[in-house]
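Task: sequence design from structure.
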């Protein structure tokens, strides 16, 4: 059956301080409409206001991470607003002056700033057609928002209010791990828009690394490890009768619910820490916009018998222009540039994957206050040689382990309360040290990579598919977690991976079944049908999907038209990069832009001369 896609409501557009979910819920109750999606985006904290002069400095300072994150968010939100044709009211929810300093488009819209609960009533009461209120405690705010929207009510905080019960009468269910950030409100707004049942649960206590290790031990023969994993996850959902629903989507901080629940119905997952706001928007928007019918199939031909030819044939039959990165063409350089800049709707990867070798390093440094520190980390190095280039790009990934004896990202490290500048000092000092004592390590945790014809690809990129929002099927071992995060963060709208090391025959049969059904319904439906190939094997329930239940792709009209659309997108990309080159002053950025322009030009000259000529003859305007 064809899934109904909710309309994106651009009457209101919300940008909210990430740690004020209660205020965001109140705003949502005033302006959201049941059956429509309210675009809301979360803005994390910043450590300084925007300062254009800082951008010229190549030195890392204590504000760089915050500054880069906020600058990228500004660009993404600006582009998102343009895609939906702007909005009637732009709502800024509890944003600080420092946060607002990064938003360069505010003068283009009518803005309403919501600083507290009283502002909601003052500024939004007139904009809502709702008249009655629902009293709700702050602890029950997520269920309260859903109930209020479903019943055309406005939320009012009342700590004495009774617990709110939600009717369970829909054909789909959205299960959300409650974390007290705006991402949880965004997930509730999504449930409202698709008219699904809502269930709020506690988050799992295991982090993603601990989940990975339990799965690894289980696969090595320790059955108790799977029991431990299930004992941590299953109690949160054991009260739900999933057979009452046609599909379920979990908003989670990383738990593999589909594995624990054995795929009894079609399950998808959305990561609450990986831009769920853009993830939902991209799925809704790109479902019916800007598909160019282009696919990339990547395989260094590691296996005697694999699905590669079948995948290529199915895309070609459905009038997709297929870029084949096969055999000697499946290099680190090629996949990196194609992933970043080539316009595609679908990427299929067939290779070896999982954790790879690297180095363990311990370094001592002195911070700017003269204090001594010791940092421990692992290092992964990869190379991307390319024909015609004398210099070989080297990619280094640092995976932090300990700082002054505290485990990285641990509660103890946070409570030690080191000043921000200590970590920028650390990065600057580590960059200067060329004589590191590297101890070889056969397998580096969290180093999930893709084996290429030449070296291993670590997927360290900040652009994806020429600003498209593609679907990724990474049919390699251990591909559900670490490497998936980058694809999702940068804009993929669905990602299929494996929870452990998969048998090649199972991988081949599952992929071929998946692609045989891909154009007949949803991505989720095709995967659910293909899982029959894993039943009764050691790889049963191995596949995992980050995505939404309705996502699908459509067949093209002709291979020729699809190829022309790719050429047009490449031409547009060159224009965009030339404009950016003319406005930036930072040498490292200029160098990167020039390389991207040259890569696009090479692609057009090598593969698209006929299409470029046709585009010019037709006098098409290259829109930006």
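Answer:
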């Amino acid at each position: 059956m064809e899934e109904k896609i909710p309309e994106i409501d651009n009457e209101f557009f919300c940008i909210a301080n990430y740690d004020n979910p209660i205020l965001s819920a109140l705003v949502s109750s005033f302006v959201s409409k049941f059956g429509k999606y309210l675009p809301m985006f979360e803005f994390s904290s910043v450590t300084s206001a925007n300062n254009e002069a800082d951008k010229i400095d190549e030195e890392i300072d204590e504000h760089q991470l915050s500054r880069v994150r906020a600058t990228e968010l500004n660009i993404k939100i600006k582009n998102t607003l343009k895609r939906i044709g702007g909005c009637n009211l732009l709502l800024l929810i509890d944003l600080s002056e420092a946060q607002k300093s990064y938003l360069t488009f505010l003068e283009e819209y009518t803005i309403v700033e919501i600083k507290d609960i009283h502002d909601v009533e003052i500024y939004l009461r007139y904009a809502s057609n709702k008249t009655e209120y629902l009293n709700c405690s702050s602890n029950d705010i997520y269920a309260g928002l859903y109930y209020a929207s479903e019943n055309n009510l406005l939320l009012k905080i009342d700590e004495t209010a009774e617990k709110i019960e939600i009717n369970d009468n829909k054909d789909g269910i959205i299960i959300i791990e409650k974390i007290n950030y705006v991402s949880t409100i965004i997930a509730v707004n999504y449930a409202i828009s698709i008219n699904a049942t809502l269930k709020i649960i506690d988050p799992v206590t295991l982090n993603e690394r601990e989940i990975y290790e339990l799965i690894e031990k289980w696969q090595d023969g320790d059955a108790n490890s799977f029991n431990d994993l299930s004992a941590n996850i299953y109690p949160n959902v054991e009260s739900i009768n999933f057979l009452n629903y046609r599909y379920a989507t979990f908003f989670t901080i990383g738990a593999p619910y589909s594995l624990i629940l054995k795929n009894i119905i079609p399950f998808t997952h959305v990561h609450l820490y990986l831009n769920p706001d853009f993830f939902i928007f991209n799925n809704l928007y790109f479902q019916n916009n800007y598909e160019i019918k282009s696919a990339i199939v990547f395989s260094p031909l590691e296996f005697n018998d694999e699905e590669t030819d079948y995948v290529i044939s199915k895309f070609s039959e459905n009038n997709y222009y297929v870029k084949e990165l096969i055999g000697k063409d499946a290099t680190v350089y090629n996949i990196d540039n194609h992933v970043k800049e080539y316009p595609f709707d679908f990427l299929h990867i067939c290779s070896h994957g999982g954790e790879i070798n690297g180095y363990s390093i311990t370094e001592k440094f002195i911070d700017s206050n003269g204090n001594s520190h010791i940092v421990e980390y692992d290092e992964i190095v990869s190379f991307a040689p390319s024909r015609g280039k004398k210099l070989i790009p080297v990619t280094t990934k640092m995976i932090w382990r300990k700082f002054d004896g505290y485990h990285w990202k641990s509660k103890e490290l946070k409570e030690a309360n080191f000043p921000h500048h200590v970590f920028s000092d650390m990065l600057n000092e580590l960059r200067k040290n060329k004589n590191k004592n590297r101890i070889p390590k056969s397998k580096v945790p969290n180093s999930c990579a893709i084996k290429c014809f030449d070296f291993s690809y670590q997927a360290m990129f900040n652009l994806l598919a020429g600003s498209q929002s593609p679907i990724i099927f990474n049919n390699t071992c251990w591909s559900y977690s670490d490497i998936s995060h980058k694809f999702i963060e940068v804009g993929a709208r669905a990602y299929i991976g494996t929870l452990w090391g998969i048998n090649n025959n199972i991988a081949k049969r599952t992929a071929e079944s998946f692609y045989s059904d891909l154009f007949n319904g949803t991505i989720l439906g095709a995967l659910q049908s293909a899982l029959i190939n894993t039943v009764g094997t050691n790889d049963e329930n191995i596949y995992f999907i980050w995505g939404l239940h309705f996502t699908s792709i459509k067949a093209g009209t002709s291979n020729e038209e699809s190829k022309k659309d790719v050429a047009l997108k490449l031409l547009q990309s060159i224009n965009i990069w030339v404009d950016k080159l003319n406005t930036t002053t930072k040498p490292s950025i200029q160098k990167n832009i020039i390389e991207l322009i040259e890569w696009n030009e090479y692609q057009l000259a090598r593969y698209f001369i006929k299409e470029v000529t046709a585009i010019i003859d037709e006098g098409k305007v290259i829109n930006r």
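The chain has 20 helices and 26 strands.
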